[in-house]
Specification:
The protein is mainly α. It has nine helices and no strands. About 80% of the residues lie in helices and about 0% in strands.
Length: about 160
């Protein structure tokens, strides 16, 4: 005889099983949506290196022209790698690092008030990109990615 607790437990396991199927599509959606935006941001930086360099100089960032170029390249090409899911966790590391620096350099007030005024932190420009990169760094790109396809191909090849 099924008890109420067993019935609830069974329904919960079914729910979790169903939600597990949504993990890879969710990770794909995160990669496509947020890293397409970061790609466009990087393209904007590369198209306007002079203005970005001036802005970086106003923030007292050393070597503003070099940093503007490096950040623009990472945002552009790192985003492309994250969109297709290639070398995702390795690519997410410098993206997270650059976004933490962006917070500290451009939105330090938001960082300093993360607990007293969390809305300011969450509404800062780097937040969605930092959160997305952290999600990919921690959970990986999911099964709908080149990383997963390569791992599957390498696994089949080693079985032969």
């Amino acid at each position: 005889m099924n008890t109420f607790a067993e019935s609830v437990g069974e329904k919960y396991r079914l729910l979790v099983s169903w939600l597990n199927y949504l993990q890879s599509p969710f990770l794909l959606l995160v990669r496509l949506y947020f890293f397409w935006q970061l790609f466009q941001t990087g393209q904007g930086k590369l198209s306007n290196l002079g203005k970005v360099s001036e802005y970086f100089a106003s923030l007292n960032i050393p070597f503003p022209a070099v940093n503007a170029l490096i950040i623009g390249l990472f945002e552009t090409f790192g985003s492309l790698l994250l969109i297709i899911g290639l070398a995702s966790r390795l690519t997410a590391i410098p993206i997270v690092f650059l976004l933490v620096i962006a917070y500290l350099a451009g939105d330090f007030e938001a960082v300093s008030k993360i607990f007293s005024d969390p809305d300011k932190f969450v509404k800062a420009d780097p937040f969605p990109f930092l959160l997305s990169a952290a999600i990919i760094l921690i959970f990986g790109p999911g099964k709908i990615s080149l990383d997963a396809a390569i791992a599957k191909w390498v696994g089949k090849k080693s079985d032969s």
